Amino acid sequence: MSATDTRYMALALTLGRRGQGMCWPNPAVGCVLVNDGRIVGRGWTQPGGRPHAETVALAQAGGLARGATAYVTLEPCAHHGKTPPCCDALIAAGIARVVAPFQDVDARVAGQGFEALRKDGVAVTTGVLADRAAQDHAGFFLRTEQGRPLITLKLANSFDGRIATASGQSQWITGAQARRAVHGMRARHDAVMVGAGTARADDPSLTVRDLGIARQPVRVVVSRHLELPLLGQLARSARDIPLWICHGEAVDGERVKAWQELGATLLPCALDGLRLNAADILAQLGQAGLTRVFCEGGSSLAGSLLAADIVDELVGFTAGLTIGAEGLPAIGALGLDSLEAAPRFELIETRAIGPDILHRWRRAF
Ligand code: AOF
Ligand code: ZN
To answer: Any idea which positions bind Zn(2+) (predicted)?
Structure first.
């Protein structure tokens, strides 16, 4: 592995991240073609998952792909899906060498892409920036291997961890810059998820605004009894932007019908005492194809996800005001009996954002 390989792979990873949130259930892959020290093609997985990154980069390079090195952020696919295999396309274009971080976890590929390339005389180097690539593909890996999407839990709260006053006032705790940053984060996820309490209290639209993105994230609302306002923003836009509602199995048939008529997709989930089972919610979302879910609370849903130990990343926006013990806590009861049982996270970033602090944490293993 050389410094040159690392540099071009870093570029391919940056390009691949452009597809995050847009190409589920496929992974967001990046590809850079380099011929004689010159970049001749760049590509990333397109909205909806196709064309694949390599196809885009090869089309750009044309004849200049002959003899080039392809830096791809995942093993090139070997299967005949809706498009022909990328490894065949790389071979046909005369690519001399492929550099990738690791094998694909999709059973249809799983080493067969590398094998086909080597068999045709293409040199293959693996292991380049594998840690970084594993972070970027974490959602795709989790879905493929564990059947659930990656979960980022975002909370915007006061210095003392409150998300509203006792009377429910919450707009606004954090500033405009932090709220804008949230739209950028929503865009990089396949879905934005909230609990029913938040949907009722805030009447959110849960869309990405002012960023000109190719595909809006799915809106997911978790509501055991399907008690959501039929005249709110979510209901009004359910025909245009996907709205999925996770609910308990025994719900009022009229409500089911009303939401279906509005265009929502209903996902029945198993119960866990009085709440929906958090692991089952994620299993349903994984089954439906989601790889990256951005949960924006409220406290009850945040508590369920954390208690089930299925939060992969925490994003906190902390504002310089205090609300006091009577305010609504950001995270509901976890039922811990000792500190050892508390879900722990490792700090990955802190940054001032306007008058607030952004901090990001990743699940400690
Ligand atoms: C690549 N380059 O850009 C992506 C790949 O449904 P299909 O036919 O599009 O295949 C989806 C699978 O292809 C997906 O599960 C993963 O294994 C791979 N994704 N492969 O060579 C790409 N997005
Ligand atoms: Zn492919």
So the answer is: 52, 77, 86
Asked if the ipTM is above 0.95, the reply is: no
105-137 pLDDT tens trace:
998 889 999 999 999 999 999 999 999 999 999
Domain with 22 in it: what CATH number?
3.40.140.10
Ligand 1 pocket by Cβ (under 6 Å): 26-27, 29, 45, 49-50, 52-54, 74, 76-77, 81-83, 86, 104, 106, 109
Task: Report the length, in residues, of the chain.
Answer: 365
CA distance 278 to 64: 50
The reply to whether 154 and 227 lie within a common domain is yes
- Domain boundary residue among 77, 108, 137? 137
Into how many domains does the chain fold? 2
| Domain boundary residue, one of 102, 137, 172 | 137
| Tokens found for residue 257 | 């019908």
Q: Which of 26, 299, 48, 21 is nearest to 185 (CA)?
A: 21
Please check the confidence at residue 210 and state whether its pLDDT lies above 90: no
Residue 54 bears catalytic tag = yes
- Chain-centroid distance of CA 144 in Å reads 14
Residue tagged 């866990």 (tokens) = 272
Cβ(312)–Cβ(362) under 8 Å?
yes
For residue 142, is it within any domain?
no
